[in-house]
Amino acid sequence: MSYTKKYTFAPLPQTNRGESIKLGTDPKGKNFVYTNGKSVFIRDIENPTLATEYIGHNAQTTVARYSPSGFYIASGDANGNVRIWDTVNEEHILKNEIRPISGKISDIAWDSESKRLIAVGEGKERFGHAFLFDTLSSVGEITGHSKVINSVSIRQQRPFRAVTASDDMTVAFYNGVPFKYAKTIRDHTRFVHAVEFSPNGDHFVSVGADGKIFLYDGKSGDKIDELTSDDAHSGSIFSVSWSPDSTQILTSSADCTAKLWDISAKSVVNTFEFTSSSNAVSNQQVGNLWQGDWLLSTSLSGEINYLDKNSGKVSKTIDGHEKAITALAVSSDDTLFTGSYDGRVYSWPFGTDSDHTVAKNFNGENHSNQVVALNVQDNKLFSAGMDDTLRVGDLENKSFGGKLVSTGALPKSLSSTSGKTVIATSENVQVYDSESKKVCQQDNLGYAPTVAAIDPAGNTIFVGGEDNKLHIYELTGDSLKHIKDIGNHLGYISALAPHPTSNTIAVGDSVGKIFLYDIESGKPTIQNWVFHSGRITALNWSKCGQFLVSGGIDTNVFVWNQEKPFKKLAIKNAHVDAVNDVGFLNSSLSDESHIGVVSVGQDAAVHLYDATKPQ
């Protein structure tokens, strides 16, 4: 029993208003790298569907940079840790780890020999540190700033030089090696967001919140000129990148534009305008990179925009989730639907065209708060959110209709079968028909409902409660008739999955136990699926009904065989934090001996596994 992680559908870079983000370039030209949550994501720059995830940090990651050799990546986090790990092995073996400063790492720079690094950010004793990557011994002092350092760059030719940019509105220049403070540059009048040496080492530039761009000599640090133009940026400039030939720079700004500048002419060559969203703030450009022929700029919404430097237009935009994915549904053609913490819903047309899968935003009015649950039924997508609404979307048009249903209370779960939908809220249980009209509502339950499900025939409603029991109701007309209560779990009921063909239901609870009950007798038929160490977050049956997949807050996913209860497949550490939802693929990656498993979690990533069926 084994599995292979076949695909990782990566989230967008994590952004914060008023802060720049760092996109790391690959010296080999194949990938680019960025951070989200506690993970570092490496994406193929030509086909960004292809991605891998590094999960070594225990705190929120903030920046990741390739070494010039391409063999290592150094990544920093919010606790001040820098981890250096290899890019060659799939396991990304850790080479070294250091805590150079006491607060958040804002930026990291390598020297051209892939030996020395400078890490900068927030700190108490210091705001930056220079060290060797193998012995971690100091190779200089990063001083001269009185506030957080936002950016650092090292000249890639000897004699080495380094430059840093800070919230104290200054740029500091260092000679090296060892790196030693040389002078402070006070040309900016507001925060300095980014500094960058040109690839040939002749110049470096600084950009800041004052919307200004200054050009300096790379060896001496003397100012050469300010880049000004009639069509210059009108807002804060967050990021700057050099062209490979050192003749042009790309700047990204809060004025919702990215601009291409010619250094010798000191003028704007092209302006890229971003108006894809109705929310202008989300179009602010907060990060960029120039790698070979590829120019990328990142919006505050997290969208990665590919720029065509010749036409001055955006050639394509990579969309997706930025926050934790909290809900998952899989259609019969293996299209994935995901909902996230910030209310966004996306479709991923996986099917057979997997190498070109991109996230497509579900049109119409999305939720204004966390998506609690998604369900696909009869060519419709049912979505329940913490904005206390039920929304119904059309799968063909990938769009939510104008109609939304108020649940009147916080939804806890959603379950649909042909023509009926049941929702458990914090106060009651509600049943809707195919037109999303309320059929019945059961109040005064005598317990607090946590999850609800409906059997495939649409006649029986199952409700899990905080009283650690499963409550069974019969749907008759416009009312629910209580039939019986079964189970006496040690924790509250957290997940339900009625069997697709038999009179059986899988029940997961808050202490990590999964029971299979015969509904008629109320007795457990399987009660030894106890390998999760935390709350069960999701249960789903395979189409054939032989296999059950479970996910938990313990980061693990298990595939169980009902016919051979002692056989299981364990996918350990499937996500960095909790696994929030799981499912099976119907045809893709599935055959007589294999089955496709999909999971989503707190790391905002979608993972697809080619798993051997537990036999």
Automatic annotation (TrEMBL):
Belongs to the WD repeat AIP1 family. InterPro entries: WD40/YVTN_repeat-like_dom_sf, WD40_PAC1, WD40_repeat_CS, WD40_repeat_dom_sf, WD40_rpt. GO terms for molecular function: actin filament binding. WD repeats lie at residues 54-95, 185-226, 230-271, 318-348, 532-561. One of its GO terms (cellular component) is cortical actin cytoskeleton. The lineage of its organism: Eukaryota, Fungi, Fungi incertae sedis, Mucoromycota, Mucoromycotina. GO terms for biological process: actin filament depolymerization. The keyword Electron transport does not apply. Pfam families: WD40. It comes from the Eukaryota. This is Anaphase-promoting complex subunit 4 WD40 domain-containing protein. Keywords: Repeat, WD repeat.
